[in-house]
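Page 42, continued from yesterday. The earlier attempt failed because a stray header line got pasted into the input along with the sequence. Redoing it now with the clean sequence only.
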Amino acid sequence: MAAPSSGRRGGRVRRFRLDDHLFFYFSQILSRRTRQINRDLAALSLDYGRWRVMAVLHDQGDCTMGRLADLSSVERTTLTRTVAQMEAEGLLSRQTGPGDRRRVSLALTAPGADLFARILPIVLARTARALTGFSADEAQALREMLRRMADNLKE
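This time it went through. Structure tokens are written below.
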């Protein structure tokens, strides 16, 4: 597939419509889903940011801050505050590495893992709603295309 043009034709900016811009839809999808999940998790005194941290730690097990930042797509400063809050709530633990006190490993605690198990069905239900009308094959194809796009944007 050819790379898109710069958007200029003869010194003028070509017509631009949000509806034609793929990333407009990504923003809309993520914004709507985040708002919905925040509403769903409010009763548990949680939010989307903490859900993302829990999801990564559940999937990865022990994880460094750098790896957590990369996989959760949370800005490092925000992530530091989120992790501190979750540690104070007893949802995760920090361990320094043997021989290198700068290397910190994060993991869900037992209460954090229990809470993750309670909220996972809520989040999966929101995902299922977003995929309403998609076949399993279409959802898998979409996942693969999005993974390729993410790989294309790695720095």
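Notes: The longest strand covers residues 100-108.
Reminder to self: strip header lines before submitting.
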